[in-house]
Amino acid sequence: SMPSEMLMKIFSYLDAVSLLCVGCVNKHFYHLANDNGIWLRIYSSCFRPKRTIWKMKSEQTETVSLDCAALHDRKPGHWKKEYIFKQIAAVKTRVMRLVKPVDPYTGLPCKNKEAIKASGLSWIIVLKDKNGKEHIMEKANLSFKDTSVTILWYSTNWPCLDILSTLKLFGVTPLLPDQSRDPSKNGPRRRSVIAEYHLANLTESSVALGADKLVQLFSLNPGLLVGLWKEKNEIAFVMASLHYHQLLERSTLGSATVQYALPPDKPVLDDVDPEHGLHGYSLHLDMHGGSCTYLCGTFRSLFCRKGDIANGYLRLTVVSLKDNTKHLPLIGTLGLSWETDAFKGNVKDCYVMDVTLLDETGKPFWCFSAPVYMELSSKASSLYDYMGHIYTTDYADSEGKVCVELVWLEETKEYFIVNLVLYISTRKVNNWYGTNY
Prior knowledge:
Layout: H1 4-11, H2 16-22, H3 27-32, H4 36-46, E1 53-57, E2 60-64, H5 67-72, H6 78-99, H7 112-119, E3 122-129, E4 134-137, E5 140-144, E6 148-154, E7 164-174, E8 189-198, H8 202-205, E9 207-211, E10 215-220, E11 224-229, E12 235-243, H9 247-252, E13 279-289, E14 292-303, E15 313-319, E16 328-329, E17 335-339, E18 344-348, E19 350-358, E20 364-373, E21 375-380, E22 389-396, E23 400-409, E24 414-425, H10 426-433
Helix pairs in contact: 4-6, 6-7
Pfam family, one: F-box-like
Protein name: FBX15 protein
Organism: Cepphus grylle
C-alpha cells in the first residue's frame, strides 16, 4: 500500500547488492528497483564517465551532463545491466592479472589462491532427494596445495542417505564481488555446475577406500570422497579434491544446469621430429592426506620409446624398479585425515594424489586430483635393498593410468616408492599432437 514515490526514495539509499535483493521480492519491487535514475547514480559513483557531449551556444562551448539523455533514452534496467557487466569485467581483469604468472615447475598459475579470493569463488554441494527436494550444504573448510584445493563439508543435519538420489557440486561466485568484505550468502550469486554424482546404491556402485573406527570412505569419480558413519550408514562428511588446471573455468563459466565444456586442443604439427609426442614430458606429483604432505616433487625429461607403445597406451617410466638410486621415501605414514565439529579421525592406507603432466612446451597435458588407496600385494619384495610388504596404488580415467608400487620398511617405519609408471592414452596423444600412434 506504500506509494511508489516513497518506495523509490527508500530504494535510492540502498547499495547495489541490496537493490538486487529487493528486486526479487515481487514484480512491483522488481520494476521499481530497475529505475535508471538510481542505477545511474550507483554506476557514476563507481565508474566515472570518460566522455562528454559538447554543444555550441553563441560563442561559448560548454559540457553537458549525460544524465538526461542517459535516463530518458534508455530502457528500464539499462544502467543496472551496465553496472553489473562493468563489475564482472573488472573482476575478470583482476583475476586474469593474478593467473598470468606461471610456476615453471607445475605449469600452473602461481597465485591460484589469490585469484580464487579475488573472484569471491566458493563451492557448495546440493543434495536432491527422491521427492525432488534440494538440500544445500555450504559450510566448508578449504585446504590449498601446490596444484589442488581440497574442500570438506560436514554438518549435523545431513539428509538420510536412503532418500537421496543425486549430489551436485557447484562453483558459486557473487554477482557483484566486494573486495572489502566477505560475499553475502543472501546476495545475488551465480552457480556453475562442476559435476553430478548418483547416490543410489552408493556402497555398491562406488570404490571403497578404507575405514577407521568411525567412518567408511567411498570414492566417486571425478575426485569426490564420501564418508559414511559406520553405525548409522549416514553421511558424515563429503570431500572434493579439485585440480587447479581449469578450476576457475569449470567453477565460473558453466551454468546452473550445464557443465562448462572445455575447448578442444588444436594440435601443433611437427614434421621435423619423427618421435614428436614421445618425449619431453614433465611430471609434478603431490601425495597428501589432509594437512600432511607425504611427497611433493617434479620429474623431468620423461619419454616413451616406440616399442613401449602397447594396448593403446604410451608408457612413461618415472621411477624404475631396477634403479634404486631414484627410489623415493615418503614422509610419514600414509592416511587421509578428516574432521567435523565433534569428531576427527585418520583412515590409513589412502591419500589424495595430484598429478600434473606437462608436455615439452610446459603446457598442462594431463591433470587430475583424486583420492586413491593402497592395496597389499600378494607378491613379496624381490629387491635386495628392501625386505618388506609391497603395496600398490592404481588410478585410471579416460586419459591415462597411474601405477605405483611401494615397499613398507618395518625397521625404519617408512614407505619407499620403488616403481612409478604413467600410461597415457594414444588417443589423447594423437589429438594433442596431431600424430598417429
